[in-house]
Amino acid sequence: MTGGRLQDLLGVELPLIQAPMAGVQGSALAVAVSNAGGLGSLSCAALTVEAMRSELAAIRTGTTRPFNVNFFCHEPPARDPAREAGWRAALSRYYAEAGVAPADPSAPTRAPFSREVADALAPFEPPVVSFHFGLPTDALLARVRAWGAKILSSATTVDEARWLEARGADAIIAQGIEAGGHRGMFLSADLSTQIGTMALVPQIVDAVAVPVIAAGGIGDARGVAAAVALGAAGVQVGTAYLLCPEAGTSAVHRAALQSAAARATAVTNVFSGRPARSIVNRLVRELGPMNDAVPPFPLAIPALAPLRAKVESEGRGDFSSLWAGAYAAACKPAAAAAITADLARGLAGAR
Q1: 9 and 120 belong to one structural domain
Q2: In three state form, how does the secondary structure of the chain look?
């Protein structure tokens, strides 16, 4: 079952969601996609409360249409100084080569959705709120529902989809292994449970009664049509928007997407401590893709910050998290409205 038209649930013209992408997009991309008839999204996972307020104000100024805000729901791990020191030691040769000092291990990284964030979010009453790595506490979820928001979350397995439905998710994002950025897995850390989008979508469609949104490896009208043919009520697309002028993708990241490097992506933990799909670069080749020395998410992030900053200033992405899905090599520079219109053509035969 698709659980009804996604357009009706979300209040949008097109059942197309721009994936929230921390670090590579802000309000401009969300506004452009919403104004083009899709659901623009803002990732708040890496934003301070002040920055979130500023971006939300810009969205409210830029569009009167629905939009989505996204948050992480991970359980912060206990600090392990010995393991963090071991990770910095594994990076020591790179520090020496780049001529930088190891980072402060206590630097802020990624925080989960909290009461403080909910307090700051409430005045904006976003119509759609999505979560990654499960859902927040029942109390926090009730606060979000109180202003009428629809709740979405990612599932990477049928078990996760059923868990989300049982806890009141209004729609489920079926995130296949091809998707860029962090895997949304939360019931298991076993990567062998992760399957492709076109295998995952029909399994989740058969298992739940709420609408299912396909995500992972979809970047053009053909991918949209295939997902809909398998029962998806809509799609979520991220990588195809990375070369948009409205995206905040760095120059180094854009160059990688337009090079032969984009032909190889891998699920790796070396950038954050959690499995995520990136273009394969030097760090992934030499220390990954999966490395047991890496501290758990998000404690691995600070150690790479000085390396990333120094090497990116020299025009290279050797230590940068070049998040991208399996669609990366097909990315083309285009305005967000044009990409949204192309994706919409995949819906033509499904209406």
Answers
A1: yes
A2: CCCCCHHHHHCCCCCEEECCCCCCCCHHHHHHHHHCCCEEEEECCCCCHHHHHHHHHHHHHHCCCCEEEEEECCCCCCCCHHHHHHHHHHCHHHHHHHCCCCCCCCCCCCCCCCHHHHHHHHHHCCCEEEEECCCCCHHHHHHHHHCCCEEEEEECCHHHHHHHHHCCCCEEEEECCCCCEECCCCCCCCHHHCCCHHHHHHHHHHHCCCCEEEECCCCCHHHHHHHHHCCCCEEEECHHHCCCCCCCCCHHHHHHHCCHHHHCEEEECCCCCCCEEEECCHHHHHHCCCCCCCCCCCCCHHHHHHHHHHHHHCCCCCCCCCECCCCHHHCCCCCHHHHHHHHHHHHHHHC
